[in-house]
Design a protein that fits this description.
The structure is a homotetramer of 165-residue chains. Chain A is α/β, with parallel strands linked by helices. The first copy, chain A, has four helices and ten strands.
């Protein structure tokens, strides 16, 4: 089994710079998380963007989509900011023949307490057990793209009731 | 979605007692891990054993099997010591109509660096994406019961080549 | 031995709020650090400010000084932002008859990797081994007030060469 | 300022080996702790023993004493198991002209929650603020050798009342 990880930034990779008293996206924590998870499969990590997901543009999403569509792997885990993870998932759904799972974190992986490791663990399991399609792994749930939203008030992801009409 | 967690002990829950300069199985870390994972689904946790898995007996395995077979949930995540996780999985395969994922850790969840959180994340994703059956989530892989062994020399789980015919 | 801890905010207590993608001063981590340090002495914690130290005003410093001068304890550990820790120390030097140690952290205590615990440990030792006066405990050093500055380029505290006369 | 660290083993450096389901003394965590503490002074680390302190012999203590007595540094921090830290401190008190602080931990530094970092922070402060002599830094207290014991029931260090005769 081979998994290609694509990092795009987001809270999961945020780091604190004292000089600016501000959090910015730092180097990806995915490699570190996989090492801690003692994973025993082939993978590589492609660093694509280092952005807060609110700053990701339509052009960025298009670039990500074209990269994956033209790439030779079958399974992708994408680390992504939570604010527009749903939007990026929607863009990727037109890619055929691949299993793609987006994940991220509501607090930085560099924190003592963070959902980052749990979420990447979920994504790794989901990308190898699910069929073709695009999914989100957050808050202990695996969601299908198009059926999920971020509830900003509750700061968590939830299923969107699908309309039947 | 509802998941019932059953804890049986193992390295994942080990704690160090200074007086004896020895590690013993402590209170389960599963609740703590789920809280850190910010999970947003219904669950409960049943504490069944607090044993090193080398000390689990056939009778213990039978008791676990009968509990799950007679219980009303559909999805189970079982935390378990790694040394006999494969054996327990084999015993559970005769239970029909349920999705059961065993997981654990090669180093204690109370350690700064541990595979525990990653593994429970994997198990939670696997138990909701897979159909009926018994599985192991370890070392970044989801294995089917009956097709996996612990390689004690490498201290990791690996696929067993299926029979010679 | 009794130590009174006074918290004033700073990086040590910073927390990340996703909604604003920004770090703000959260609840003090001092209590948590002392618990982890298994300390066995009498103490209490007074929460005075929750500010980035760049936002502390002359009036704030005066208030802190008057609180300590009029208070009945002999030993004080003050958690403080690093940017103006030196200035606050200078203001406190006119208080007679007390041992006061300021400390803080260059990265938040809530981070997996932080100097916060080490620094509070240093401050607790320094406040019980030193005589009357005002001190800073940072970067593995105990400095006397008036003989220390923050080197912002190197992001660390260092001794100031004393005057030529 | 120069500090020489001498590591002798103990709980602070313990690590868990799954194969034996047992804790053993691993590589010293002192270097890692000093890095996390962002210390800015000159030091080196001498690894002398890797033993549970119950296994340290009179000969070991003599060897440690001779090493320090014949060595050129002025300040020493010794990491040590807690069970016989007091005994080793007693042996070292006959060394003249040096400041020596023993410290260790009641739970391993590799644990998520441990007193190790706090204690090393204390020792580093104590060794630079105290005059010649031998001290223990544990449980938030700096004790003088000869006036401290480990209370095994409470699992903490405490002052011994000195006899007047």
């Amino acid at each position: 089994m081979f998994i290609r990880f694509v990092t795009t930034g987001g809270t999961i990779d945020k780091i604190y710079f004292d000089e600016m008293s501000q959090f910015e996206v730092g180097e990806s924590q995915v490699k570190h998380i996989l090492t801690e998870g003692l994973v025993n499969f082939d993978y590589d990590i492609v660093s694509m963007f280092q952005k807060d997901s609110l700053e990701l543009t339509d052009k960025d999403r298009q670039e990500l989509k074209e990269f994956i569509a033209g790439d030779d792997a079958e399974r992708y885990v994408i680390s992504h900011g939570t604010d527009t993870m749903v939007e990026t998932a929607d863009v990727l759904t037109s890619i055929p023949g691949k299993t793609i799972v987006l994940t991220g974190a509501l607090s930085p992986a560099r924190f003592k307490t963070s959902d980052a490791v749990f979420n990447v663990g979920m994504a790794v399991a989901a990308v190898q057990t699910l069929g073709r399609g695009v999914y989100l792994a957050m808050n202990g749930r695996v969601f299908e793209a198009g059926k999920v939203r971020k509830n900003r008030d509750k700061n968590c992801f939830e299923t969107v009731a699908t309309d039947r009409n």
